[in-house]
Amino acid sequence: MSIAIRVEALSKMYQLGQIGTGTISLDMERWFVTRVLRKPDPFLKLAEANHRAVKGDSSFVWSLKDVSFEIEKGETVGIIGKNGAGKSTLLKLLSRVTSPTKGTIKLKGRVASLLEVGTGFHPELSGRENIYLNGSILGMRKKEIDQKLDEIIDFSGVERYIDTPVKRFSSGMYVRLAFAVAAHLESEILIVDEVLAVGDAEFQKKCLGKMEEIGKRDGRTILFVSHNMGAILELCKRGLLLETGQIVRDSDVGTCVASFLERDKHRQPSERSDKNGLLDLGRISINNEYSYQIDNSSPFEVTVHLAAKDIANATLFFIVENAFGQSVVHKRVSSAEIGHSVIDGEFRLHVKIPTLWISPGIYTMYFKTIAPATGWSGRAFSERISVEVAGQAEASGKAFMNPSVTWSMHPEEAKAKALLV
Amino acid sequence: MKTISENEAWDLVIEGHGPLFDLKISEVWSYRDLLLMFVKRDFVSFYKQTVFGPLWFFIQPLFTTIIFTFVFGNLAGLSTDGLPQPLFYMAGITAWNYFAECITKTSTVFKDNSQIFGKVYFPRLILPLSIVTSNLVRFGVQMLLFTGMMAYYAIAGGSFRITWAIVLFPFLVLLMACLGLGLGLMITALTTKYRDLSFLVTFGVQLLMYMTTVIYPLSAAPERYKHLIQLNPMTGIIEAFRFAFLGQGTLTATSLGYSGAVTLAILIGGILIFNKTERNFVDTV
Known about the structure:
Chain A contains 10 helices and 19 strands. The N and C termini of chain A lie far apart (59 Å). By secondary structure, chain A is an alpha/beta fold. Chain A has 2 domains: 3-9 and 67-262, P-loop containing nucleotide triphosphate hydrolases (Rossmann fold); 268-390, Immunoglobulin-like. In chain A, α4 (127-137) crosses α6 (171-183) and α5 crosses α6 (171-183). Chain B is mostly helical. Chain B has one domain. In chain B, α4 (85-106) packs antiparallel against α9 (196-210). The longest helix of chain B has 31 residues, at 126-156. The relative contact order of chain B is 0.14.
């Protein structure tokens, strides 16, 4: 396999705050230091890592810092991370919208980037005219568009409106047309930012399908940024996890997403326990282990540590969520039902779960308790753990459940035949 | 990591600092279809949902000519070198307008298109070039008006003549386009970070018109200021334009050579500054 993209020590610095007043003196100072004295840029040293929420001293931040990786031809790579982790900056650099502060990117093959759908669409022009305009902006030759025009119109599903100015389009139709153009780009490398957020479910599915087809059948290299873990897991083989401008994990997409969700759970530390310290949920173990791996064809037991000070009428919850954040399991029980109308002291809460037959993937599990007597302060969350569910994956399609079923086929009996007629 | 693939052929290497002297002409050429598409967009979107369509291109030069004839010709009584006044002014206005449009439109190209530039890469030079080209269409339409007027005065017996210099016409248009483009590129590059200059452009171009021989012939300019007016590269071009179509004007090899040399310098300078700015302007615009 040959390498399609090589990124070496890529860094990008941004200046925060108002750009304008004062910058001319900074510019002159920088110019003097770097060009006349031939010393390294003093502002590069000042720059800090990019923590969005933390107040910093420097007005220069590294949106990306010393990022290096290689991507082989035909790989589909998902780039994940929180807002401000540097995902979009990376894509911008790769698609040459802006240039790096330091480091190099080496590319082999034509690059098409889709950071936004419908870039350059002109509202006054018709759908057809916009296909040509948008296609040219994305780097297609007119001849290419001529050849694919019918295919593009067909894929977009807005044939009836194709000679109407796009300002009369609904936003969904607009996106359909725009993605249809982009989907027919013939490039060796395709860079896609979160563009599927708009459009109805049917079209989103169509887009993902098309991208999968591009990746698998045509053997093209795809870089995909999304906050939709489901889409990432479905489409990509490899994952890059970015955090404050650095790659913290570069692995197969499953572990990468798991690692992201694992880190993500630290987002809600304030929710962990109630303010009065009356109720607390601790660590979770599965089958008495902390490795968090289960098989979808076997039952399992989840245990959590629970501490309470004289709490009455508590309700206990156990929740399993899939990568989309949808609840797969949501069970509740009152403490009285399991023989403790008042909880006082430290306990171990067990939940025995039968075989779930959920599709393999990454799931999040946590416990929650509510005790009305203590008001809203009597609400506690356990840690959120990422669980890797293993099992036989279905080759085609992605269903929520993947039970083990038995297939059989028998010759039709004479009596039943008569009924059919 | 730098092992076997060190000598591999990369199609594209992106680095922080590119070479200083790089006009990127071949890259622009490979995107020529996009240029035409932008021209078409500008033209079509201009007259969509209007009743008169491209006729609007006539209105502006026509009315300006009427006003100029009234104010400068009749009230101020400025010389027109013996040419019919409307013809004299329209020649100047048509040519000047093209130059002025090129410079004002290209001077805001980064600001106006930061949406597109922020999302997709193509050689940025395509957009200014498309502006110059679509203004050429407009200029062509206005030239029709001008020739129509020439025909009218030919029949009505106005004193003017078309000279051999008409063969220079394409060259003159090219000079105006390049000069406007070059200056516009410099201004747009400088205004991405510091907006101050953009306030200067609109009225600066207007003032520059009075420094050019649009409303008066060079021959009527006071001797003391003649050299100052001739320093303006547009003077040589407008004078040559008038000489070509109307037979009056100062056309020498020196004046045109000077305009050509200044234009070339400004154009190359403009492209270099523009190409240097385009790499990072998205971060500051």
